[in-house]
Amino acid sequence: MKNLSAIIEALLFIHGEPLSFSKLAKLTKKSENEIKESATFLITSLKDENSGLFLLENDDSLELSTKPEFSSFIEDLIKDDFESNLSPASLETLTIISYLAPISRAEIDYIRGVNSSFMLRSLLLRGLISRKPDPKRSYIYLYEPTFDLLKFLGISSIKDLPDYEKYHNLLKTYQEKENNEKEKKSKQDE
Fold first, then answer.
1. Distance separating alpha carbons of residues 16 and 63, to the nearest angstrom
2. What's this model's pTM, rounded to 2 decimal places?
3. Domains parsed from the chain with CATH numbers
4. What is the pLDDT of residues 121-161, one digit of tens each?
5. 64-86 residue pLDDT tens
6. Please, which residues have CB within 8 angstroms of residue 120's CB and are 6 or more apart in sequence?
7. What is the per-residue DSSP string for 15-77?
8. Closest CA to 96 of 155, 170, 156
């Protein structure tokens, strides 16, 4: 039970958005009942005063969040980040979105190799990117640059970015290759 709870916690952390019990069951190759039991264990273990996180449960989904009593610290961090210049990680995330939009957070995370939740939140607050539901998968958001970003950069279209076609095509080719490899692996696992 403990190990499955840790796996669920890791999946929720890296995903950064709610995951359904059915999706968690599929990812862990466990039953939904086992997921629910482990979620109950995880809820209890996160109630410990040494944890800054807690688990939100809504209908058939779970989401990892910070405890409300730490909100002032988080607000200070966000304000400080918002008032400072964009970090290299934020610029990297913004570049990926600009050249590959619309793009999901999972794809951004995969390209960067790290969780991008905080960077995306910062860029959303600054109004440099927007998000919209993916028409193919309602539980996924797609990120794209905003008109404010275009105005800030002094360009009239995202295609006016330096070497847009070159890098856009290069990254799209990379994405397609990765998606093909994932599909092959998925078919092999079935």
1. 7
2. 0.57
3. 2-66 (1.10.10.10), 72-189 (1.10.10.10)
4. 889 988 899 999 888 887 789 999 999 888 888 888 888 88
5. 888 888 888 877 776 665 556 78
6. 93, 105, 108, 129, 131, 143
7. H-S-EEHHHHHHHHT--HHHHHHHHHHHHHHHTSTT-SEEEEEETTEEEEEE-GGGHHHHHHH
8. 170
